[in-house]
């Protein structure tokens, strides 16, 4: 009787304490962020944010918030979204800001270990980055240019032999993914997946990527990183290729290839043989070995292929739906070939030559502005002591421990950067050429580059991606004409973990008479 009474009292006290702690947290958040605009519902619950992530369209939701409430908005309790490039640049370089664990823990490919992208300890991140930077820069990857060219040649052959002029439709979303995966596998460990050569994906890399990113997106939305640690509940990745499924089959395949390369590297080192010059060799020479090497390779494959493929799809979509720009780009391409600036076919344009073509570069830059290939929350926590920032000339205090995310879709349409009367929703490459105000043009370029990260957090693969985009866009529009099969629904697209997973981008292709 007494035990029942005591148990009942302690149970009630526990309920009161739990509810009180929950209520205190909500009230504290309301008070801390009361000076920042945003919907009332967002201040008391994270449900709208969770639903936006689960929908696969959180970037649209972020953009609407910033368009309605300004450059800094409450997205959820203790969570803000910003479209201010100045604020986001500061967050990436100012001491005290750290990566938000709620986002990066859920973004791990191997839930037990961090990769360069998910590492939340600044010092550890910087140390690992130093081991990898030379491999990404091309300083120790001497075949980078020719590796990209070889994959472009395969793509041209595939389009020409199987689709061009044959009254067949082609899924451009799939082919750009094939290209990106073939490129990253070739430059990474000198072993091409050969998806373009066969026009098939026998190991289901595309499906595995979708499965992995969908699962990661689900975990981020509900903050379920801890579930992975529950015995008999969390996923059990295996090194056995045959028994693995979905995303873990992809990781097992890559792990086996990396293990073989590391074994070869050590054997060559002992025998005095010069190892092949690719990214994995560079990483190993600089001390990245074992499990860390496998984890970073997996990051290369997923992040390096999906973002590049997404950029290409955006470029193609906006060119195919803007005939004026399409014709102007092809005119520049033809002039470059006829004048001898670019070698005639079958030789492939060099990335340095593509970089000198002004309109081509403007098209790429503008397509990535209107359709950002990266829409990750990339959340950062404010310093414990908080920070005072300036937005639109107004001082705003950011309390400590608040998570801030960028809205790149809104940032790329920020009128304080592009001009109050700017046609920010229009695809117009000329804005990057005709802008007379040097200060504004520099601000535009700086804002645009933020999608690749900033300061010590800048994407290591940026240079490789831009090289690839210039060469591929030039060659595909030099040789072929492209038409969308269904302009009313050009593709099926979802944003999972900030990466666009696109399929069913059906096009028809015709060989150009003058290429």
TrEMBL record:
Gene3D superfamilies for the chain: Cytochrome P450
Residue stretches spanning the membrane: 6-25
Pfam families found in the cross-reference section: p450
Named cofactor requirement(s): heme
Residues that, per the record, bind heme: 459
Domain of life according to the entry: Eukaryota
UniProt keyword annotation of Acetylation present: no
Keyword annotations of the record: Heme, Iron, Membrane, Metal-binding, Transmembrane, Transmembrane helix
GO molecular function, one term: iron ion binding
CDD domains reported in the protein's UniProt record: CYP57A1-like
PANTHER family: CYTOCHROME P450 (PTHR24305), P450, PUTATIVE (EUROFUNG)-RELATED (PTHR24305:SF168)
Protein name: Cytochrome P450 monooxygenase
Organism annotation: Xylaria flabelliformis
């Amino acid at each position: 009787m007494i035990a029942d009474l005591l148990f009942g009292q302690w149970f009630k006290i526990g309920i009161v304490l739990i509810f009180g702690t929950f209520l205190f947290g909500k009230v504290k958040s309301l008070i801390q962020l009361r000076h920042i605009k945003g919907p009332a519902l967002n201040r008391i619950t994270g449900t709208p944010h969770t639903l936006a992530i689960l929908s696969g369209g959180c970037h649209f939701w972020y953009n609407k918030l910033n368009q309605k409430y300004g450059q800094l908005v409450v997205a959820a309790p203790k969570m803000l979204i910003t479209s201010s490039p100045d604020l986001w640049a500061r967050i990436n370089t100012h001491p005290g800001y750290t990566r938000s664990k709620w986002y990066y823990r859920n973004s791990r490919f191997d839930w037990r270990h961090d990769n360069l992208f998910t590492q939340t300890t600044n010092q550890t991140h910087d140390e690992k980055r130093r081991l990898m930077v030379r491999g990404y820069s091309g300083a120790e990857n001497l075949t980078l240019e020719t590796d990209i060219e070889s994959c472009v040649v395969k793509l041209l052959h595939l389009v020409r032999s199987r689709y061009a002029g044959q009254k067949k439709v082609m899924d451009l979303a799939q082919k750009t993914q094939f290209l990106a995966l073939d490129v990253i596998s070739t430059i990474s460990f000198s072993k091409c997946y050969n998806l373009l050569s066969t026009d098939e994906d026998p190991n289901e890399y595309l499906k595995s990527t979708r499965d992995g990113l969908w699962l990661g997106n689900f975990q981020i939305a509900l903050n379920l990183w801890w579930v992975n640690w529950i015995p008999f509940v969390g996923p059990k990745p295996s090194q056995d290729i045959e028994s693995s499924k979905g995303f873990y089959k992809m990781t097992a395949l890559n792990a086996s290839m990396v293990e073989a390369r590391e074994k070869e590297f050590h054997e060559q080192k002992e025998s005095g043989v010069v190892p092949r010059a690719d990214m994995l060799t560079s990483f190993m020479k600089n001390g990245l070995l074992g499990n860390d090497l496998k984890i970073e390779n997996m990051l290369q494959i997923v992040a390096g292929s999906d973002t590049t493929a997404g950029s290409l799809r955006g470029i193609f979509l906006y060119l195919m739906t803007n005939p004026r720009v399409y014709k102007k780009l092809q005119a520049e391409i033809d002039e470059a070939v006829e004048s001898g600036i670019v070698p005639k076919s079958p030789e492939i344009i060099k990335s340095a030559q593509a970089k000198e073509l002004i309109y081509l570069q403007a098209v790429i830059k503008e397509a990535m502005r209107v359709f950002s290939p990266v829409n990750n929350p990339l959340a950062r926590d404010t310093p414990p002591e908080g920070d005072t920032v300036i937005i639109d000339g107004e001082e705003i205090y950011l309390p400590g421990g608040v998570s801030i995310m960028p809205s790149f879709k809104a940032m790329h349409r920020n009128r304080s950067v592009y001009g109050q009367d700017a046609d920010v929703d229009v695809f117009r490459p000329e804005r990057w050429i005709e802008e007379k105000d040097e200060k504004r043009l520099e601000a535009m370029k700086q804002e645009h580059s933020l999608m690749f990260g900033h300061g010590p957090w800048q994407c290591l693969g940026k240079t490789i991606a831009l090289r690839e985009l210039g060469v591929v866009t030039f060659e595909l529009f030099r040789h072929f004409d492209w038409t969308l099969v269904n302009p009313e629904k050009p593709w099926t697209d979802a944003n999972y973990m900030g990466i666009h997973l696109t399929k069913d981008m059906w096009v028809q292709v015709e060989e150009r008479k003058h290429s």
